[in-house]
Amino acid sequence: MVKFMQKVPAGTFLFPMLLSALIYTFFPGVFNIGGVTEAFLGGDHTTFLIAMITFFSGIGLDVKGLGKLFKRHGVLFIVKLILAIGLSFLYMTLFGQEGILGINAMAFTIVMSSINPALYLSLVGSYGEDIDTGAFGITSIFAIPVLPLFIYSFQGGGEFDWMPILSTLIPFFVGMFLGNIDKDFNDIFKGGIAAVVPLLGWKVGYGLNLLDALQASLVGIVLVIIFYVIMSLMVVTDTLVLKNDGVAAGSMLGVANASSAFPAMIAASVPAAQPYVSDATAQILATAIITILVTPIIVNKLYEKAHGQDDKKKNQQKA
Predict the structure, then answer these.
(1) What are the φ/ψ torsions at residue 103 (nearest 5 degrees)?
(2) pLDDT tens, 61-77?
(3) Which terminal residue of the chain, N or C, has fewer Cβ atoms less than 10 Å from its own Cβ?
(4) 1.20.140.10, 3.20.20.70, 1.10.8.60, 1.20.1530.20: CATH of 45-192+207-302
(5) Which residues pair with 103 in a beta bridge?
(6) What angle do CA 293, 84, 202 make, to 5 degrees?
(7) CB 211 within 8 A of CB 24
(8) In this model, does residue 146 exceed pLDDT 90?
């Protein structure tokens, strides 16, 4: 079974996620019995798993490799920020909060601001380089409502809270500190990321209602197409400007399912956005599910184009 999952792009993440999503769709409270079972199989404590992976990513990163990390991923994140912030403001200016094609401004802003860190980690683990996993902590910032809240706060002239960004990065720097002062920490936690990814996949899925996503699938497909067209500029930057294979940038083309909770958070701070919460939530959920299924195919094609089938098989065996 494990070998079969490894043959599918991001399979060790996707299969547990789809199984738990299927269970949640039809039996949403089946594991709500308290105690260890609910903690293990329920949808809570995802943040702890993300913190663990962020910590493991830091441990495995040599300080000497920081320059390479920022040179590549720093550029990609800057491109992501420019596209998300610039186009969100432009969308609101041109179409208002109601948007166009059934896509309201809140859904557009949140989707453009999102990266699925679990999907990213799974894909770079199979197709990327070791340095790519070091960027996991930064991708996690795009899985919390920091950027969309910043956009709405800036638009409304409100204050912005920097604490979520600091909170996300602290486990990464703690891990990096320990891993560099004593290399034996690498031996202790070696394989930690690979062990946690299937568990994270399960946690991510247990909270996805596939029927709700299906109802918003048509608008979700339109939103996904727009997302891929715009964010493909990251892949162009990675391949043509940075002269890489595009795997790292392609692995960032996912929408975090947690982003579907952001409309309610934004509406709590921006009451004018309240009427759009329901539609935005459904559209973002549909977009998250579609990108989880499609993005691995895109990354697989990018890798094959750059390296061929033989290297792909080696990487899958490594993963």
Answers:
(1) -100, 105
(2) 777 767 778 888 999 99
(3) N
(4) 1.20.1530.20
(5) 100
(6) 30
(7) no
(8) no
Q: State in Å, rounded, how far the first CA of the chain is from the last one.
A: 14
**pTM for the structure as a whole:** 0.75
Distance (Å, rounded) from C-alpha 227 to C-alpha 246?
17
CA–CA dist 61, 276 (Å, integer):
42
- CA neighbor of 147 nearest in space, from 91, 108, 118: 108
Question: Residues 171-187, buried b or exposed e (16+ Cβ, 10 A)?
Answer: bbeebbebbbeeeebee
Dump the DSSP string for 38-93: HHHHSS--HHHHHHHHHHHHHHT--GGGHHHHIIIIIHHHHHHHHHHHHHHHHHHH
pLDDT in tens, 263-282: 877 887 778 888 888 888 88
Which residues touch 200 (CB under 8 Å, ≥6 apart)?
13, 46, 49, 50, 53, 118
Structural tokens at position 82: 């420019």
